[in-house]
Amino acid sequence: MTAAYTCSKTFSGYPCCHRQWRHSGHCRFVHGYSRSFCFWFQAKDLDENGFVVDFSSLSELEQRLRQQFDHTFLVNADDPLLEQWQGLHEQGALDLRVMDNVGMEASAALVWDWANTLLKARDGGRSCCWKVEARENEKNAASYADVPTWFNNETRED
Q1: Which tops the pLDDT comparison, 157 or 100?
Q2: CA-to-CA distance for 112 and 140, rounded, in angstroms?
Q3: Contacts of 24 by beta carbon, 8 Å cutoff, 6+ apart
Q4: Residues 6+ apart with CB under 8 A from 109
Q5: Most CB atoms within 10 A, among 5, 23, 72, 154?
Q6: Which pLDDT score is estimated for 155?
Q7: Does 27 reside within a domain?
Q8: Helix axes 104-123, 59-69, angle to 10 degrees
Q9: Per-residue pLDDT, 4
Q10: What CATH number corresponds to the domain at position 42?
Q11: Strand, helix or coil for residue 83
């Protein structure tokens, strides 16, 4: 691994609920958490301010997290009750978000992609997100870690 600077930023306070309908235990029931996400960033070179990532420039990412997870009801796209959840959404009883997988592992991978899409477009490959921890509470968390191929394959003239 080549040398890199790293930093992390946590966004918290996203109360939402979900269910894992395939689970044979209590996780099949609707239940909620206040989710949080910790992003780890890296860069080979610091920006003009001496930062890996300027945390004040992550408002677009924070807004996306809020839109997806703040007071929302998350269901899998293949949930057999999807029509009922959509009906309750239309009636204003819940704020529905349909996802491929509502689990914390898949949520970590989803927001990892969001962060890297933002960084690649904005910084042109100078920085990347290499890990996200998605936490449902103080006891339980899942993470996704990978370095985007565009970051590894970046060629820079020094």
Answers
A1: 100
A2: 18
A3: none
A4: 132, 144
A5: 72
A6: 46
A7: no
A8: 150
A9: 87
A10: 3.30.479.10
A11: helix
- Residue 84 is assigned to a structural domain of this protein: no
Q: Where are the beta strands (DSSP E) in 19-153?
A: 31-43, 72-76, 96-99, 127-135, 141-145
pTM over 0.90: yes
Given a cut of 90, whether residue 1 has pLDDT beyond it is no
DSSP 88: H
Q: What are phi and psi of 113, to 5 degrees?
A: -65, -40
Q: Which domain holds residue 148?
A: 5-18+34-71+103-152
Distances (CA, A) of 48 to 44, 45, 52, 104: 13, 10, 10, 35
In a domain, 24, yes or no: no
Does 40 fall in a domain?
yes
Q: Is 128 helix (H, G, I), strand (E, B) or coil?
A: strand
Gap between the terminal Cα atoms of the chain? 19
